[in-house]
Amino acid sequence: MDWLFFGEISLAGLAMGGLYALIALGFVIIYKATRVINFAIGEIMMFAAYLFLAFAGGMEMSPWVAVPLAVLGGALLGGVIEKTMIRPMLGESPISVVMVTIGIASILVGLVEMIWTSNPQLLPSFLPREPVFIGPMYLAPKIAYGFLIGMSVLVLYLLYFRFSRGGVALRATASDQAAAYSMGINVRRVFNLAWVFGSLAASVAGILVAATGGLSPQFGIIGLSVLVVVIVGGLDSILGALIAGVFIGWLETVAGAYLGGEYRMPATFAVLAVILVLKPYGLFGTHEIERV
Amino acid sequence: MDAVLEVDNIEVVYNKTVQVLRGLSLSVPHGAIVALLGSNGAGKSTTLKSVSGLLSLEDGELTAGDIRFNGESLKNRPPEKMVRDGLFHVMEGRRVFEDLTVEENLVAATYALTGRGQSRTQGYELVYDYFPRLRERRRQLAGYLSGGEQQMLALGRALIARPELIMLDEPSLGLAPLLVEEIFEIVARINREQGTAILLVEQNAAVSLALASYGYIMENGKIVIDGPADKLTSNEDVREFYLGVGAKGEEARSYRDIKHYKRRKRWLS
C-alpha cells in the first residue's frame, strides 16, 4: 500500500469534509432553531456561488469585495425565503414545510438556469496558488485554503453560539419555544436569524466548493451528501455536524480514489444505513421525548 | 385604575372545538398576591396562557372578552412584547432550559428587559441573593438541578425581568412539603421587597390562601366563588372541598363516608 498516496487522499478528503461540515452547520442551525428540514440548503449555496460568479466574473470586482457581497446575498436570500415562504407555514405539518423547501430548491435551479444558462462554469480563482505541503504530502492549494477559511467560519459560529447572548437566545428557542417566548425572546426573529446565519454558512461553503470544482445548476446535489452528514451526526447537533462532516468527506474521497468514482455515494449511504440502524438519532443527536 | 391586571369575561376555545373558559373575570390589584384555585382541568393554566399570549402556540383562541394590563388591552400583542412590558409568566412544570447552564437561563431572561434601558447585570446579583444555591450551581446545566432548584431558577428568571406582575403556575408541583414552604416564603419576600404583584395558580389551597390577600376559585372554566383570603378560608364550602376539612366540624371523615359522597358540588350562586 502506498502510504503517501493514502495520506494525500485522506488529507484532501478531510479538507473537503471541513466544507461539508460548514454546509451541515447551516443545515443544523436552521433545524435546531425552527425544526424545519431545509432541502434547499444546497441550492442556496449554489445561488451564492453564482452571485460570486456574477460579481467577480461579470462585473470584475475584486474577490475581496465579491466574496462578502455574494455571501451576504446568500444570507439575505435565506432570510427572505424564511419570511415569505416558511413563516406562513408555521404550525403546518413538517412534511408540508419540507415540500415547500424542495419547491424552493427547484425554483432556485430554474432561476439560475434562466440567468446564467445551464452550462458548467469556472469561477475566477481567488485563492493563493502556491502548492501546500504538509510533511511530504501535497495538497491542492484551493482545497487547503478553502478548508482553512471554512474552519475559521465554523469556529466563529461555535464561539458565538457558546458565549454570546444571541447564542443563548438561539439555544433557548431550540430547547423550549414556549418558554423562550415567556422570557421575552422574539422567537420569530430568532427563526429568521437562524435562516440568515444558516444560509450564510452555506454560502461561504458554496463559494469555496465551487472554487475547487466548478459550478453548474446541478451543484446543489452536494446537499444530498450533506444530508448524509447531518443524519449521521444528529440533526440538531453542531458538534455532530462537524465530526460527521469531516468523516463523510474523508470517506467519500477515499472510496472514490480506491474503488472508483462511482462508489463515492454508495459508500457514504452504506455508512448512513449502518448508523441509522445502530443509532437512529445520529451519533450526537438528542433523543426526542414527546410529551403531550 | 388600581388593578394591574383585569381579565374581563373571557372565553377560550381550543382547536376551534373545545371551550375551556366560559366567561371568566378576575382582577389583580397593584402589589397584591391573588390566588386562583381550582381542581385539575378547571382552566387555571389556560387562564394564565390567555393572559400571556402563549395560547396561540397551543391552537387556543380567545373568542370573547378582554384582558387589560395597566388599563391597556393585551389583545393581539405578541407574547414577547408583554414580557417586555412587565408581565412575566412562570409556566407550569418550571420549563427551565435544560441544556443551558443556570447562568445562561438567567441571560435568556434578560431579553425581557429589551427596550427598557435598564442594566442587565445587576439582576444576577439580586437572583443570587434570593437563591444562594443557584450561585453555587451557576455553571451547571439546569437539567441537572433538583426540582426545587429548578423552581428557584424559574423564579430567578422572573426576578431578572423585573416585572410588575408575575403569574406563577403551580410552583408547588412535584415538590416536597418543606420545599413548598421555602418557595412560598420566597414568593412572599419577592412580593414584599420588590412590590411585584403575583397571580398564583395552585391546587394547594391551604398554602396559597395563607399567602394571598384575595382568592378566586374556579371550576369548569368559570369563577364560582371569590373573596378576601380569610373569608374564603372560613367559607364552609371551600373548607369542605378545597381545604379538606369536614363541613360538620373538625372530625375527619372516614373513607366510608367519602365513598358515599359521589355528587360533585354544584355552585349555584
Tally of helical segments of chain A: 11
Structural class of chain A: mainly alpha
Strand order of the largest sheet of chain A: 1-2
Contiguous helical run count of chain B: 11
Oligomer: heterodimer
Question: Which residue ranges of chain A are poorly predicted, with pLDDT under 50 across at least 5 consecutive positions?
Answer: none
Most residues in contact, chain pair and counts: A-B, 20 and 32 residues
**Overall body shape of chain A:** globular
- What gap, in angstroms, lies between the N and C termini of chain A? 57 Å
What number of structural domains do the residues of chain A give?
1
Fraction of residues in helix of chain B: 25-40%
Question: Can you offer a commentary on this structure?
Answer:
With 292 residues, chain A is mainly alpha-helical. Chain A has one domain. Chain A contains 11 helices and 2 strands; from the N terminus they run H-H-H-H-E-E-H-H-H-H-H-H-H. Chain A has a two-stranded antiparallel ribbon. In chain A, strand 1 and strand 2 form a beta hairpin. Chain B is of the alpha/beta class. Chain B has one domain (3-260): 3-Layer(aba) Sandwich (Rossmann fold), CATH 3.40.50. Helices cover 35% and strands 26% of the residues of chain B. In chain B, the strands form 2 sheets. Chain B has a 6-stranded mixed β-sheet, with helices on both faces. A 4-stranded antiparallel β-sheet of chain B has the order 2-1-4-5, with helices on one face. In chain B, strand 4 and strand 5 form a beta hairpin. In chain B, helix 4 (122-130) packs antiparallel against helix 6 (147-160). The A-B interface holds A 91, 165, 168-169, 171-172, 175-188 and B 52-54, 57, 59, 78-80, 83-84, 88-91, 95-100, 104-105, 107-114, 157, 161.
